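Researcher: We are triaging several targets before committing to wet-lab work. For this one, the compound of interest is zinc ion. I'm pasting the protein sequence and the ligand SMILES. What I need is the predicted three-dimensional arrangement of the protein with the ligand bound, expressed as structure tokens, so it can go straight into our comparison scripts without reformatting.
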Amino acid sequence: MYNIGIDVGGMSIKAGIVNNGEIISKLSKETDRQGGLDKLADDIIELITNILNKNNIDIKEINTIGIGFPGVVAKNGGVTCVNLGLKNALVVPKIKEKFSNTRVMVGNDANVAALAEYAYGSMKGYESGVMITLGTGIGGGVVINGKLITGANGIGAEIGHMMISSNYFDCNCGNNGCFETFCSATAIIKYARKLVEEGRKTIIIEKADNDVNNITAKMVFDSYKENDEVAIEVVSRFRKYLAMGLANIINFIDPEVISIGGGVSNASDIMLEGLSEQIKKHLPFDGAGIGEIVIAKFKNDAGILGASAL
Ligand SMILES: [Zn+2]
């Protein structure tokens, strides 16, 4: 038997046939962000039909069709994605209209990425794992004994919006002080930009062709390696709040493993420098030890693999 994983993103919808954690075939098409639920369901059905035909596989050989979305998935399966114009959209019945005898599941993309790492990647073999994805925002996923913990209403594990401290700008969610306003790629860029605009001298702005709008998180980490004072300040601030966020997770769940993924984790050597020691400083139970902190295995395939494991 095979599973199908669908990764719905803002730019493209990717589909993959998965067999024992291996993607044996992939297909994608552009996301129609204005099309609403009906068009999205049609596009997903078209991708599934095409990928099955291409591989000469019958739908009867598919155990589960899992679909990951960049938004909130409520307990009733209602999908809300502001970017895709979906509000409490019931996707499963739409897919079932075509594939009535196949199990169809939906999940949030960060949860799905955690499931991919738990089933096949950096959290494989552990009982309890938490994944955080440091990208444009911060996504979170909690897996315990093989089950995603999504809460009573499907809005649990929103680790990016746990409030850490007060910050100089508000989060997109309307709160102030969310974890993602300190430790996402966006947060790193904003803080570097702020220091440049305050007149601080730094090679970051040279790398950005003297335009603050060109600054990327990678430029900050590259400048850190060159001992740039401003970059060191930005990275130290990032690491300080990352340690607080991870300490909160440990205080709350004490997982066997925490996996860090997303674009920022490409600078894993810098990110992990002294991180465990900083985390331990925030823990009330000195000497109890903490779980492993690892870097996620999957980059672009996490969405397909994780959705297939829903
Ligand atoms: Zn927030």
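Researcher: Any quick observations?
Model: The radius of gyration is 20 Å.
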